[in-house]
Amino acid sequence: MDVAPLQPYRRGDRMTGGTGPARPVELAVEGLRYDTDGHTLLHGIDLTARPGETVGVVGPNGSGKTTLLRCVYGALRATAGRVLLDGADAAALTVKERARRVAVVPQDATGTFGLTVREVVAMGRSPHKRFWEQDGPDDVRRVTDALETVGTGPFAARRFDELSGGERQRVLVARALVQDPGLLALDEPTNHLDIRYQLEVLGLVRALPATGLLVLHDLNLAAAFCDRLYVLSGGRAVASGPPREVLTEELLAEVYGVRARVGIHPDTGAPNVVYLPVAAGS
User: Fold this and answer.
1) How far apart are CA 159 and CA 14, in angstroms?
2) Cα–Cα distance between 46 and 236 in angstroms, integer?
3) Pairing state between β 80-85 and 236-241
4) How far apart are CA 19 and CA 184, in angstroms?
5) CATH of domain 27-245
6) What is the mean pLDDT of the segment spanning 121-147?
7) N or C: which end of the chain has fewer CB within 10 A?
8) How many helices, marked H, and strands, marked E, lie in the chain?
9) What ranges do the domains of the chain cover?
């Protein structure tokens, strides 16, 4: 069977999810520190994301990536420093005000037991409605369009907790789409996804009229879909900049402890990392 090649997404492409024209948020993280149980997990992190930019956060396990993201979207309160959304201190915003600006795709969903897929996605409209306000025709249309966009329309009536990990991840992306965010924060959004949906989800993030902040493990995906990268190690930002400048063989050896060759992909122009095998016992 012939398979049509995946067409690259370009900034400004129209997605078909039916979300409104969100205004991209400018994000600034200043001197962020996070302590817990006598340990410092983040050491004075500075990070910026310009409106409409897609910024990736990479680094080995335990480097502080998820902790940083959770401080940005408010699940954790930083010990010091601040998070600014369009110049406003995010800590001063109410939960609903923050939710109108920031949508989150976490690694795992909570508070969804017993809900159908459609009901989980419809939760994304809550920040834009009054308490107990029923879904209107526009809400229903947005939810339906988002479900179709991420390929989950056929099982909209199924219970969310009965889905596979990859299916749940796509539903959470749909929930974020209908929230109309100015900033989209994603923690390992390609977890549990096969390669087709990894490419489609990250391409969709690129096409959205929103600023993106993504935690990613796959460096080649990060290089292909992110405008800039921040590399964390030991709770510190040790490098930042465009992927071509950041992803060097020297950095991979120092931060990840691996030998690799970094070239330029002939089709995308993005850095391409090829890891070299490690001899047994070395």
Assistant:
1) 30
2) 9
3) unpaired
4) 13
5) 3.40.50.300
6) 89
7) N
8) 9, 12
9) 27-245
